[in-house]
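thought: fold this chain, then report.
action: predict
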Amino acid sequence: GKRTVDSIHWKRGAALTRSSLFAHVAIRMLVHRMRHPHRLLRQRQACQARQLAPCVRLSTNRSHCLRVAAAKAEAKSSKPQPKSAKEAVEAGLLEFGQRRDYEEAVRLFKAAMDLKPSSQEAAAALFNLGCAYAKQRKFKDAAEAIGEAINSHDLKLEVALKDDDLRELRDTREWLDMMSTAKGGLSREQKVNLRAEAKAPFRLARLIIFGGLGLGAAIGLLVILGRLASAVKGGEGAPDLTESLTNLSINAAAVAVFGFLVLRDLQSKERDTRVTSREEGLGRLLIQLGPRRVLPLIRFRGAVRPVIIAGDRSFVERCIKDGEQRLEMLRARGVSVVPVIYTSREDPEEKLRALKRSMSQQQQQDAKGFAAAGSSAAAQGRQEPGPSGSGIGNSEVSLTEQDRKWRLEPSAVAEWEEWVEAQKEFAGVEKSRRNVWM
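observation:
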């Protein structure tokens, strides 16, 4: 325990002053060294054998030795430094593959990039650096390293798509972001356009046909307007007025019809693009499957039909309870529920429940005293729901495989809230409406 000067007494029982204590300690240390020189020698030899710092001798009422570990910088300096990029990559592969020392592998792959590597050596260093980062679950750094290897050093995207060490990385949102900028990948805009065209595969053909016919009708209309002017003036060789009016009406009607059809397809394309863009944004939102496993919702495409329930805790709990009564029917249709409980809003019912709990706790304290109230409050605290942002929908409680298929727990709930609010505005729903499902 911590000792003070006042707590140290000698055999005669008299308390020493601060100056006399320090003098006595110094004398005892000198006498001890003179009587037992071999002990100090053995202690120093042991410190040197273990590559530790020199022993530090401290004494209050007895002598003891503290062993201080050597600095990490000395340990790192003792490791061999590669002299070329190729040597650094090979040493990093040895640490990565055989010794599983991913931190040392990262250091060596970074060192390779500082030794003026060739394009092939840089691609190997960056790719293996991404694999080492992925093993450390530093997915953002891993995706950046892989992306740089693909874009700057001509690494084939197929290599990254098939490597087993990047399996976890490929299930992350960071991988999706990297794929949108990598050579050979698809940007988000390209994905949106492709999906929008897939919803109406003949839209482009219709636009070409209707646009061409409308353009031809417009050119014919300009020609007929000139003939109509000549017919109105009359004279020798003037076209027939009735025929000119008939042609004018036909071409005007054709321009109006084809223009309407083209405009409708363009508006439909814009609407589908907006919807598809919203869906792509939804696919980037994260689902918590376990303490160390988080997937973007897009990974569930084709496997489940998500139903998002957003709002206050009481509304979400009530919806889930009603849905569990029809669980088999919903599961047969591949329906999964994503409960999003607002974390930045105050639920009136939750405030009422908190007020009731507070009043009940106060009554128990008044009736049974402090000790009984404390145990009662502890028992009550185990039963009451957690703070906003936890509990149903936002907790990391381990679920069975069956529950995980039925309930997909959201991660980063604030992003889900932001998407829900934007979707409400997109769908024309009042912002004051708190509880929604989609």
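thought: worth noting. Residues 228 and 243 are 9 Å apart (CA to CA).
final: tokens above.
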